[in-house]
C-alpha cells in the first residue's frame, strides 16, 4: 500500500488466474483452455494480416467481425459488441449497467472475477446461495435492485441451467440488466441468444477462448439489444478505441467462418468429457453433470487438496479453489484423449 494509490487501487482485490506454465511436458488441465489448436484458417488469416498493414491502427468499430458474429447468431452488427477477451467485455458491462449503491446478485459459487469487478467499480453485491446440489435458486434472482450476472454453464460447477429458468430471471428483472456469461455454452445445449429479440434487458456474453481455441488471441463478445450495445461502445470509446488489434480481428473472423472445424473440435471435447465422467465415477468420484469443457469432482475418501498437490507433483495441473463449500472439489479441464488417459492413470494410483 502506498500513499500515492488512489482509493480505487486501495479497494481492489485482483483476480488470481490459474497457473500458466511454459513447460511442454506438463498436462495443463487448470484454466479451461481448449486442448486443440484453432482452425488452420486462423493462422492463414493472421499471416495475411501481418503482411498487410500493421503500421496502421485497426478498425475502432470492428464492423467486419461484428457482422460475421451477427450472421452466425441471426443478429445485426449493432446487436454485437467485441472486446479484448470476455473479461474485458464483462468489466465494461459492470461499468455500463451496474450502479454503485444498487445491489447486484450473482451465485455464491461462481466466476471469481465478479466480486473483483464489483469492488473495483464500488458496486455492492449479494451472493445468492446455491442449492445443495449446486443448482441455481432461480426465484432468488427475481426483482433484484441493481441487476444480475450469472454464468451458464456455471463455473466452476459446470452445471447448465435450462433456458426457461434463465428466461424467468430475465423476465422478473424488467428494470435491470441481466447478464448471462456464456463462456462455455458451446459445450452445452441452448444459448440465451434466442431470447434477445424478446427482452431488451438481456445481455449475453461469449468468448472465443474456449470453444474456438483462441484464449491466446483475447476476443470476447456481447450480444443484446442495440441500446445495450451502444452503452458498451460508449464505455469502450471512453477508455481505448482499439481494444482489438488487427491480428485478433482477422484471426477471430476466420475462426467464426470455419464452422466445420468448430463443430468437430467441440464434438471431440464433449465425447471425451462424457467418457472421462464415466471413468471418474468408477474411481469413486462424485462428478457433477457437466455441460462445459471441464468437470467438477470430489472424491469419497481422498481430499481434493491432497489430490491437487499429488497430481501437480506428477506433472498434471488441475484447479483447486480454497473456498467455502468447494474446498473439497477439483475443477478439471477436458484435454485430449491422451491427456485424460494420463490423468486417469495417475488418479488410479492416488485414490
Ligand atoms: C465464466 C467465465 N467467464 C469469462 C471467462 C473469461 O474468458 P476470456 O476473458 O478468456 O474470454 C472465463 C474464463 O475462464 C470464465 O470461466
Automatic annotation (TrEMBL):
A GO biological process of this protein is: L-histidine biosynthetic process
N6-(pyridoxal phosphate)lysine: residues carrying this PTM: 210
Q: Which cofactor does it need?
A: pyridoxal 5'-phosphate
Give the EC number(s) under which this enzyme is classified: 2.6.1.9
Write out the catalysed reaction: L-histidinol phosphate + 2-oxoglutarate = 3-(imidazol-4-yl)-2-oxopropyl phosphate + L-glutamate
Q: What class of enzyme is it?
A: transferase
Keyword line: Amino-acid biosynthesis, Aminotransferase, Histidine biosynthesis, Pyridoxal phosphate, Transferase
Molecular function terms in GO for this entry? Answer: histidinol-phosphate transaminase activity; pyridoxal phosphate binding
Pathway, according to UniProt?
Answer: Amino-acid biosynthesis; L-histidine biosynthesis; L-histidine from 5-phospho-alpha-D-ribose 1-diphosphate: step 7/9
Give every Aminotransferase class I/classII large domain span.
25-347
Q: What Pfam families does its record include?
A: Aminotran_1_2 (PF00155)
Against HAMAP family, the record matches this protein to: HisC_aminotrans_2
Q: How does it assemble?
A: Homodimer.
Q: Which family does it belong to?
A: Belongs to the class-II pyridoxal-phosphate-dependent aminotransferase family. Histidinol-phosphate aminotransferase subfamily.
Q: What is this protein called?
A: Histidinol-phosphate aminotransferase
Task: Quote the gene name from the UniProt entry.
Answer: hisC
